[in-house]
Amino acid sequence: SWTPASFVEEKVEELSQLVGDDHVLMALSGGVDSTVAATLLHKAIGNRLHCFFVDNGLLRKNEFQEVLDSYKGMGLNIEGVDARQRFWDALAGESSPETKRKIIGRLFIEIFEEESEAHPEVSWLGQGTIYPDVIESVSVHGPSVTIKSHHNVGGLPEKLKLKIVEPLRMLFKDEVRRVGKEMGVPNHILSRHPFPGPGLGIRILGSITPEKVAMLQEADAIYINNLRKFGLYDEVWQAGTILLPVQSVGVMGDERTYEQTVALRAVNSLDGMTAEWSQLPYDFLATVSSEIINNVKGINRVVYDISTKPPATIEWE
Ligand code: XMP
User: Ligand 1, residues 195, 238, 314, 316: which to mutate, most atoms within 8 A of Cβ?
Assistant: First the structure.
């Protein structure tokens, strides 16, 4: 019968046979799938697995350093690529959701190409594809946009003449988590909420600036930390904050303010295809709201999104 231990043993053997003395390049996201796939490959071929993790300037507060540290702690051969300014420059002034996604995807591919040029010894591309990705042939975002970050390298393997290795192709998410646990992947990675490849770029409605990113990072950190503090993090499937491009009037002391709004989103779901808004306790919402308004400069209003999917999507863009 299937056990995580037997899967790891057989897969590692199979991967070392398949890859032989070759080198593999892999982009990691800090998420469950790419991390577990990389851990299996690392067990099979050691430092001939070359990983990189990109800071696209759209990650959450401290995420780049924390994820990089976790990977180093796990012994992975990982390089951090600080591309924040490149992404911000490329996105400057752009407010269409589709165009923003395309810009982010294109820059990611550019960086991937640069990484592969920097590693001419590489002949394989590692990917964290899992079984539901294999069977999910139609994107929920329509034909021009892919929904999973590993699909964001579409077209790359042919162009770079890389063979593809996907150690998790036959596994469901819960099996991926069990395999990760078996290999000692830290729990904070295995239990992480899904986070979209374009990151905060699709949670800042309208055009993106480094100032807006910093503002949303603060609000998001308050929200997520309180979810953990209240024991609610594992009760919801995904949660995040959205920065709305509207200003509204508020009052502080005897002054009127005219500042921005943050929306809180939390959903319960099985696979992200349908979702219900989470019925979070009022005392939790009250705490988050006052902490955000008192601590994040430029925000004077917090609202809670009570929309189900469909018709509302989980992300706002
Ligand atoms: P929606 O917003 O379509 O999202 O209800 C469903 C799930 O997919 C994630 N998502 C994305 N993931 N690139 C990604 O890697 C994207 O462009 C993207 N758009 C949405 C979303 O966070 C949710 O988990």
Answer: 314
Residue range 203-304 forms a domain whose CATH class is alpha beta
Q: How many residues does the chain have?
A: 317
Tokens 């590993």 found at: 150
Q: Which of 147, 173, 307 best tests ligand 1's pocket when mutated (most atoms within 8 Å of CB)?
A: 147
pLDDT digits (tens), the chain, 317 positions: 899 999 999 999 999 999 999 999 999 999 999 999 999 999 999 999 999 999 999 999 999 999 999 999 999 999 999 999 999 999 999 999 999 999 999 999 999 999 999 999 999 999 999 988 887 644 444 443 444 444 556 667 778 889 999 999 999 999 999 999 999 999 999 999 999 999 999 999 999 999 999 999 999 999 999 999 999 999 999 999 999 999 999 998 899 999 999 999 999 999 899 999 999 999 999 999 999 999 999 999 999 999 999 999 999 99
Cβ 317 under 6 angstroms from ligand 1: no
Check whether 35 is labelled as a binding-site residue: yes
**In this structure, which amino acid lies at residue 186?**
P
| Residue extents of the structural domains in the chain | 4-190, 203-304
The single-letter code of the amino acid at 273 is M
Q: What is d(CA 315, CA 317) in angstroms, rounded to the nearest whole number?
A: 6
- 53 to 35, 81, 115: CA distances (angstroms): 11, 6, 11
Instruction: Select 4-190's CATH number: 3.20.20.190, 3.40.50.80, 3.40.50.620, 3.30.470.30.
Output: 3.40.50.620
Q: Whose CA is nearest to atom 3 of ligand 1?
A: 313
Q: How far apart are CA 289 and CA 300, in angstroms?
A: 9
